[in-house]
Q: What sequence folds into this?
């Protein structure tokens, strides 16, 4: 009984050194580690992250060190699972007062954004948006009809969430050989990555996807591919632990809840939202043709 606190803190110490080994941070430190147990079994590991003392935040806009403006609420980033246990980083981001970019959030360690499933998609969407912006400028310069007008959300939103005019616009865009569309298709293809059960196949897919991104000639997508490849070994962890991650399910559940509430626009009573949630999460019969969340 008396040895337990020691064993526990010892385990946490080891965890920190493992984290420092697999993903060393430059201007941040791993602070406190919490092991959350459910029924006596470790289920989630939470790791607090703090900036190094005297370390000034880096502006995410221009990459320069800037004075701190304020701090945001605590956020969580999902790291790859270790030993089949979900790992989350917990950090409250600083904002900087940048003379060049205004008030911006700071840059966080790359791994935090590259390994988190949600952030991978976000990075891809940022890339697509940049491709689109460059392409719009090119088309304008060459005097082409502005086919890319009002295309932003067609390219960025999930297909199933497009409004009818947006879906029609996307159909139109697909007829052209556009760089923006190429980037979007690359992102859509990447979804397949998460469906693999074995790390070997997942990594094969990752490599071939990165190869295609490189060959696409789209600089922004090449950058995404490069950072994915840099963290290749850690990304494989997602598949080593497949089936054992319960919190992934919880995260998915939370995402669905948020989405349902958003989609239940107009259903402002708690009762209405509750019914919408039962339908989405409980797989109750839905009208024909409606997208099923997966
Ligand atoms: Zn800046």
A:
């Amino acid at each position: 009984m008396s040895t337990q606190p020691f064993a526990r803190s010892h385990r946490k110490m080891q965890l920190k050194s493992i984290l420092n080994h697999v993903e060393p941070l430059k201007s941040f430190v791993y602070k406190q580690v919490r092991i959350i147990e459910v029924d006596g079994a470790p289920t989630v590991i939470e790791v607090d992250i703090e900036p190094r003392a005297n370390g000034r935040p880096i502006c995410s806009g221009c990459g320069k060190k800037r004075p701190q403006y304020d701090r945001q609420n605590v956020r969580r980033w999902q790291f790859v699972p270790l030993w089949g246990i979900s790992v989350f980083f917990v950090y409250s981001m600083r904002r900087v007062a940048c003379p060049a970019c205004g008030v911006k959030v700071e840059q966080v360690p790359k791994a935090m954004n590259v390994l988190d499933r949600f952030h991978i998609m976000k990075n891809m969407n940022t890339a697509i948006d940049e491709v689109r912006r460059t392409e719009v400028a090119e088309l304008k310069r060459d005097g082409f009809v502005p086919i890319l007008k009002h295309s932003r959300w067609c390219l960025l939103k999930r297909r199933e969430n497009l409004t009818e005019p947006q879906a029609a616009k996307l159909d139109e865009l697909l007829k052209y050989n556009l760089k923006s569309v190429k980037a979007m298709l690359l992102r859509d293809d990447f979804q397949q990555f998460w469906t693999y059960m074995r790390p070997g196949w997942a990594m094969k897919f990752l490599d071939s996807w990165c190869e295609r991104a490189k060959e696409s000639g789209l600089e922004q997508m090449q950058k995404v591919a490069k950072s994915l490849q840099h963290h290749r070994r850690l990304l494989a962890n997602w598949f080593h632990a497949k089936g054992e991650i319960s919190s992934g399910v919880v995260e998915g559940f939370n995402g669905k809840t948020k989405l349902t509430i958003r989609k239940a626009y107009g259903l402002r009573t708690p009762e209405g939202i509750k019914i919408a949630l039962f339908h989405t999460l409980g797989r109750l019969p839905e009208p024909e043709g409606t997208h099923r969340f997966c």
